[in-house]
């Protein structure tokens, strides 16, 4: 079976393998192989590799052998369980307590590098968008997650975080230039702010959740960008006036209600600012409501140009999670 692999010179192989392992990018279901002086490392997310590796490498697709020796959860069960990896934790969503515990036991007993298993016990709720978790294995709900060369500590029971948005966050981060000023209105633990700062931007991250702001500060330190990150706990509607006409890049990742904060976004936007506006809308018109709301808030003070209409993912039947990259020019 052909799978995506990182191809590097053999002398750089161990360094590359270690870096990919630290970023949780190695596909453990397949063997790492050596051929003609090259090392081939199977990877789970080809799009994430460039953010993790600084050395010369090539992404290729090639046949590789499956690992016969690795025991997966499905090998210990009569079915293939559904789970999501976040650092050294596995996240499941099971209503039946007995089935949930059986899956958790199989995950821990398998060869996956996982020691914590959490079962979703509620929907995302409240102003801070957190959910309840049932701890089925492990000591606590704190994890360390790596994506695109950045490391994030977080407590899933105290903050909101979605690993499924890693590729989207990287897409936006690649638009940020060194020396720019970036403002994240709902920053969480810093999954936008930290990579922006690593690219050389001066960043402000605001969040109403005090735990998220503490993790944002810690993650800025972990990634060596604390000198370029200002973390503010508060309602962004109270903070925006302190950064009037400031931002070159502005992130609004609160898709169910971002439109309620557009007045603050316009306040913080500089003379030439790109707003990354997230929304959830029906598939018949996923972009129209957001674009109309932005124009209503920003015109005529700004000329409004929609540069990108991007579908992030399917959110629910007939509903899409989308992003509008919109340039505001005063």
From TrEMBL:
Keywords: Cytoplasm, Methyltransferase, S-adenosyl-L-methionine, Transferase, tRNA processing. It comes from the Archaea. Residues 83-330 form the SAM-dependent methyltransferase TRM5/TYW2-type domain. PROSITE patterns: SAM_MT_TRM5_TYW2 (PS51684). One of its GO terms (molecular function) is tRNA methyltransferase activity. The keyword S-adenosyl-L-methionine applies. GO terms for cellular component: cytoplasm. CDD domains: AdoMet_MTases. One of its GO terms (biological process) is tRNA N1-guanine methylation. SUPFAM superfamilies: S-adenosyl-L-methionine-dependent methyltransferases. It holds the Pfam family Trm5_N. This is tRNA (Guanine37-N1)-methyltransferase. It comes from Natrinema salifodinae.
